């Protein structure tokens, strides 16, 4: 059973389009993080959201934590080929958690 | 500090052989984690250390797996009598406790192929 479900699993769009990736769970998380992973490399942390309803922006990327802290979304505006990669959400069940639970990832391809 | 280092980057081994991987975390980080990632999946937790103490092990970590972190610095992950199902990317990460953002810094991983 996947504790964090990401959708879509695969997304291929044209450069300049907007997109949203979702991360859903029936469980409450103390915090949730988004990572991006390139082929053959480890995940790189993009953002951490902690408060329900929190919105964080990182250039063209907007991250939101659901009010109930069970879900999150990642919105990319005007996608560029450099945004291509595997996007992973990961949640900590308790504050200061010793481990993270990862979703299965969304593989994003931005075509020039 | 150049981040989290893992060695080797790639390992091909025959079934039944033992393998050992090394992870050097960011020096001021006191937590070190091992995760395993198979194709098309997100990383799965294996174990973590706080300083030299191994505080939690996943049920995924069978008796053939052992991890150490002597002196609270680098860590090793050993797999004995490897099986084809052990083929995966083994990721090491470190973090600072208490860390406001709970963010991990991952290494580039060791890709293990068991033939």
Could you explain the architecture of this structure?
The complex is a heterodimer of chains A (112) and B (115). By secondary structure, chain A is mainly beta. Helix content of chain A is 0%, strand content 52%. Chain A has strands at 5-7, 10-14, 19-24, 31-37, 44-49, 55-58, 61-65, 71-76, 85-92, 101-102, 106-111. In chain A, strand 6 (55-58) and strand 7 (61-65) form a beta hairpin. Chain A is globular and about 40 Å long. Chain B is mainly beta and 115 residues long. Chain B is built from no helices and 11 strands. Chain B has strands at residues 5-7, 10-13, 19-24, 31-37, 44-50, 53-57, 65-68, 75-79, 88-95, 105-106, 110-114. In chain B, strand 7 and strand 8 form a beta hairpin. Chain B is globular, with a radius of gyration of 13 Å. Chain B starts with a strand and ends with a strand. Chain A binds chain B through residues 4, 31, 33, 35, 40-45, 48, 50, 88, 90, 92, 96-105, and chain B through 4, 31, 33, 35, 40-45, 48, 50, 55-56, 91, 93, 97-98, 101-109, 111.
Mean pLDDT across residues of chain A: 93
Instruction: Point out poorly predicted stretches of chain B.
Output: none
Measured by residues with Cβ under 8 Å of the partner chain's Cβ, the largest interface is: A-B, 25 and 28 residues
- Global outline of chain B: globular
Number of strands of chain B: 11
Helix fraction bin of chain A: under 10%
Largest sheet of chain A: 6 strands, mixed
Largest sheet geometry of chain B: 7 strands, mixed
Overall average residue pLDDT of chain B: 92
Structural class of chain B: mainly beta
List the main descriptive attributes of the protein structure presented here.
heterodimer; A: 112 residues; mainly beta; six-stranded mixed β-sheet; five-stranded antiparallel β-sheet; 0% helix; globular; B: 115 residues; seven-stranded mixed β-sheet; four-stranded antiparallel β-sheet; 11 strands
């Amino acid at each position: 059973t996947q504790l964090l479900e990401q959708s879509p699993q695969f997304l291929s769009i044209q450069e300049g389009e907007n997109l949203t990736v979702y991360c859903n769970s029936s469980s409450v998380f103390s915090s949730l993080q988004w990572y991006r992973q390139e082929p053959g490399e480890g995940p790189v942390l993009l953002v951490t959201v902690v408060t329900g309803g929190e919105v964080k922006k990182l250039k063209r990327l907007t991250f939101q934590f659901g009010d109930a802290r069970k879900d999150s979304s990642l919105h990319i505006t005007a996608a560029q080929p450099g945004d291509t990669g595997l996007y992973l959400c990961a949640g900590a069940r308790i504050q200061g958690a010793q481990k993270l639970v990862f979703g299965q990832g969304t593989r994003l391809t931005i075509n020039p | 500090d150049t981040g989290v280092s893992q060695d080797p980057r790639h390992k091909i081994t025959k079934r039944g052989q033992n393998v050992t991987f090394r992870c050097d975390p960011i020096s001021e980080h006191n937590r070190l984690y091992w995760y395993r990632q198979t194709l098309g999946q997100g990383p799965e937790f294996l174990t973590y250390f706080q300083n030299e103490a191994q505080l939690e092990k996943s049920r995924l970590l069978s008796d053939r797996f052992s991890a150490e972190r002597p002196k609270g610095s680098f860590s090793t992950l050993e797999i004995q009598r490897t099986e084809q199902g052990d083929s995966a990317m083994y990721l090491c990460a470190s973090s600072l406790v208490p860390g406001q953002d709970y963010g991990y810094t991952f290494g580039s991983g060791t890709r293990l192929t068991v033939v």
